[in-house]
Design goal:
Cofactor: Mg(2+)
Largest sheet: 7 strands, mixed
Shape: globular
CATH superfamily of the largest domain: Alpha-D-Glucose-1,6-Bisphosphate, subunit A, domain 3
Number of helices: 14
CATH topology of the largest domain: Alpha-D-Glucose-1,6-Bisphosphate, Chain A, domain 3
Family: Belongs to the phosphohexose mutase family.
GO biological process, one term: carbohydrate metabolic process
GO molecular function: intramolecular phosphotransferase activity; metal ion binding
Protein name: Phosphomannomutase
CATH class of the largest domain: Alpha Beta
């Protein structure tokens, strides 16, 4: 039975995207319905569509385009691209957009990240719920008849426009020569990095730039420390100044210093925030609930106003637009810029780090040290079926302790004057994600182990 005839959309329509196993949970016939629904909900007469290097991506994106054209929308296909390249096209062309990718998920997965014109987010509360309901109604009663005048489907290359816009936002003309190792993880960084870096005064050492959606070397998920090991070794072996790791759709970027040590995304958020505040003479900076205490502290020290919000790109983008923020950062290495249509681009964050390092006399570890003030666990995932029950058990265990506060903006945050931790369910997998921070390493380690025992042994 085709996925489209037995589809359970509750399993693939997430908080801010579509994601599932192909063809088990969805297929090209379902993608075609999503294309029709996307046009109807956004009321678009033209859209832009791109895709990553997964084997299923060209077929799914073409089917989505057929569905969109059947509702009368003209479709611009930009082909292979990173997610931030799709957002750039949506912003520059002022068209709603759809990106076919499952980001860092394994090869059998695929998905759709959708946006309105100008890269404005489409999430559960901004159109995705209505898209799902339309598709469900069509699955039950049959697809709508095509309109009288079908839309056209044309191709366009936007890589030059994407690269030029990014390079216009950061001054890299006077930086010292840098040796940069980049691990693209066989993802879309292998497509975008050569173009963006071509004019920079850097010696580029590429790793896994071949586009391969089977991810033959390691998963394209730099949030998992195991997937940074190759990059860390190469940085040390090359005597490089910095290492960069992109995820599968290259919208996230992780940084490794000259010693091969990972740099906290919170430190990168604080560094980029300080640069954007200096450039703009102040402003609002968005950070999510589980970035380091360092981020709001440094934002205030540089004359900015920190605003905390939930995890997730649609929530961050909505808050960026509402508050007029100039920059936003997440613990997961998503970085959002007002000058990039409030969308996330790991590449622009990487350029900021190169610009800062290239005008700094010392190594990267010295530069980022001033932005990394506390001991943090990083994100630790635990496979948990009863996410609600385990979270409640953790809360109960800490409820009687003196000086403890609780926050439920995004999962459960438990805090005192000396430490905090956040435990939140994944939007896409049966996981609980734990982040811990404390004023010293010993306190952080003890707290981390205590919470993990409660989560995993309950």
């Amino acid at each position: 039975m085709a996925a489209s005839s037995a589809a359970d959309l509750s399993q693939i329509v997430k908080a801010y995207d579509v994601r599932g196993v192909v063809p088990d949970q969805w297929d090209e016939s379902l993608a075609e319905l999503f294309g029709s629904a996307f046009v109807q909900v956004t009321d678009a007469d033209a859209i832009v569509v791109g895709h990553d290097m997964r084997a299923s991506s060209p077929g799914l994106s073409a089917a989505f385009a057929r569905g969109a054209a059947a509702r009368g929308a003209d479709v611009t296909m930009i082909g292979l691209c990173s997610t931030d390249q799709l957002y750039s096209a949506s912003g520059q062309l002022m068209l709603p957009g759809a990106m076919f990718t499952a980001s860092h998920n394994p090869a059998r997965y695929n998905g759709i990240k959708m946006c309105r014109a100008g890269a404005k987010p489409v999430g559960r509360d901004t159109g995705l719920k209505e898209i799902r309901e339309l598709v469900e109604s069509w699955l039950a009663s049959g697809a709508p008849e095509p309109v009288d005048v079908l839309g056209s489907v044309t191709e366009r290359d936007t890589l030059d426009d994407y690269s030029s816009h990014l390079l216009s936002l950061v001054d890299l003309a006077t930086i010292r020569p840098l040796k940069v190792v980049v691990d693209a993880g066989n993802g879309m960084g292998g497509h975008t990095v050569p173009k963006v870096f071509a004019s920079l005064p850097v010696e580029l050492v590429p790793m896994y730039f071949e586009l391969d959606g089977t991810f033959p070397n390691h998963e394209a998920n730099p949030l998992d420390p195991e997937n940074l090991v190759d990059l860390q070794k190469r940085v040390r072996a090359e005597g490089a100044d910095i290492g960069l790791a992109f995820d599968g759709d290259a919208d996230r970027c992780f940084v490794v210093d000259e010693r091969g040590e990972g740099v906290s995304p919170s430190a990168i958020t604080a560094l980029v925030a300080a640069r954007e505040l200096a450039k703009n003479g102040g402003g609002v900076i968005i950070h999510n609930l589980i970035t380091s205490w360092s981020v709001p502290e440094i934002v205030r020290e540089h004359g900015g106003t920190p605003v905390c919000t939930r995890v997730g790109h649609s929530f961050i983008k909505e808050e960026m637009a509402r508050s007029g923020a100039i920059f936003g950062g997440e613990h997961s290495a998503h970085y959002y810029f007002r000058d990039f249509w409030n969308a996330d681009t790991g590449m622009l964050a990487a350029l900021h780090v190169l610009a800062a390092l290239g005008t700094h006399d010392g190594p990267l570890s010295d530069l980022v040290g001033r932005y990394d003030r506390y001991a943090a666990s990083g994100e630790i995932n635990s496979t948990v079926e009863d996410q609600v029950g385990r979270t409640a058990a953790v809360r109960e265990a800490f409820a009687a302790r003196e000086g403890v506060t609780f926050d439920t903006l995004d999962g459960l945050t438990v805090a005192t004057a000396d430490w905090w931790f956040n435990l939140r369910p994944s939007n896409t997998e049966p996981l609980l994600r734990l982040n811990v921070e404390a004023r010293d390493e010993a306190t952080m380690s003890a707290l981390r182990d205590e919470v993990l025992t409660l989560v995993r042994n309950g």
